[in-house]
């Protein structure tokens, strides 16, 4: 298992090699296994992980039936995400996965989440356009996008043209962040650099470095 679910807590400053760096603090787990996928039945190997708690009265009846094996008096898992595996999983339904079972200090991880929504944004904010000239009689072109294409040929705007539109609120993956520290008591994970989303938002953290096996004596 190389993936866990986490929620963003915020950012802080820490020192790494006598240099001050910004660190993101995540509440990673504990995650509970809610479903196990098999290659024979489903066509691939994988596990479904649950994180957090939701009141039973706020959970739909079909989902209550799906989570029957991991539901207790406190409620059902709030977040559910599936993780594909390259080999047959050893985890069982109801098994709890802690942060120290997956990550260690010095690991490299990729973090996926939904970025903050910015609403309808112009070309300068959304794509970093320079804008028009501030002189030569220009009065209302300072933040305009400028030309959006050619003339009679092709006579249309090319698909994918960078223009004003909705910004943010999309899935973003930040790659190759380093694990600065792991706190087993608080279930927290400290990563170098920022991660997408709002505080309390769901994140999928995947370890991408290969662990070196200890030489046998």
TrEMBL record:
Region (Disordered): 125-169
Keyword annotations of the record: Ribonucleoprotein, Ribosomal protein, RNA-binding, rRNA-binding
Keyword Ribosomal protein recorded: yes
Entry keyword Ribosomal protein: yes
GO MF annotation terms: rRNA binding; structural constituent of ribosome
Source species, domain of life: Bacteria
Alphabetized InterPro entries for the sequence: Ribosomal_uL3, Ribosomal_uL3_bac/org-type, Ribosomal_uL3_CS, Transl_B-barrel_sf
Pfam families the UniProt entry points to: Ribosomal_L3
A Gene Ontology biological process term: translation
Cellular compartments per GO CC: cytosolic large ribosomal subunit
Primary role: One of the primary rRNA binding proteins, it binds directly near the 3'-end of the 23S rRNA, where it nucleates assembly of the 50S subunit.
Subunit structure: Part of the 50S ribosomal subunit. Forms a cluster with proteins L14 and L19.
NCBIfam families reported for this sequence: L3_bact
PANTHER family membership: 50S RIBOSOMAL PROTEIN L3 (PTHR11229), LARGE RIBOSOMAL SUBUNIT PROTEIN UL3C (PTHR11229:SF16)
Family per similarity comment: Belongs to the universal ribosomal protein uL3 family.
The protein, known as: Large ribosomal subunit protein uL3
Organism listed in the record: Candidatus Woesebacteria bacterium RIFCSPHIGHO2_01_FULL_41_10
This protein's encoding gene: rplC
């Amino acid at each position: 298992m190389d993936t866990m679910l986490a929620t963003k807590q915020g950012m802080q400053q820490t020192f790494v090699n006598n240099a001050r760096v910004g660190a993101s603090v995540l509440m990673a787990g504990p995650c509970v296994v809610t479903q196990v996928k098999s290659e024979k039945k489903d066509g691939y190997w994988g596990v479904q992980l649950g994180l957090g708690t939701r009141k039973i009265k706020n959970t739909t009846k079909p989902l209550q039936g799906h989570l029957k094996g991991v539901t207790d008096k406190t409620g059902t898992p709030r977040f559910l995400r599936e993780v594909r595996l390259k080999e047959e999983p050893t985890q069982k339904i109801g098994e709890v996965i802690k942060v120290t079972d997956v990550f260690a200090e010095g690991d490299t991880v990729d973090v996926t989440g939904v970025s903050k929504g910015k609403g309808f944004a112009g070309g300068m904010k959304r794509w970093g356009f320079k804008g028009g000239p501030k002189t030569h009689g220009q009065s209302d072109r300072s933040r305009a996008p400028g030309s959006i294409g050619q003339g009679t040929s092709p006579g249309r705007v090319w698909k994918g043209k960078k223009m004003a539109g909705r910004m943010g609120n999309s899935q973003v993956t930040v790659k190759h962040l380093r694990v600065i520290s792991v706190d087993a008591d608080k279930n927290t994970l400290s990563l170098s650099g920022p991660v997408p989303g709002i505080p309390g938002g769901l994140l999928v953290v995947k370890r991408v470095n290969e662990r070196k096996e200890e030489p046998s004596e």
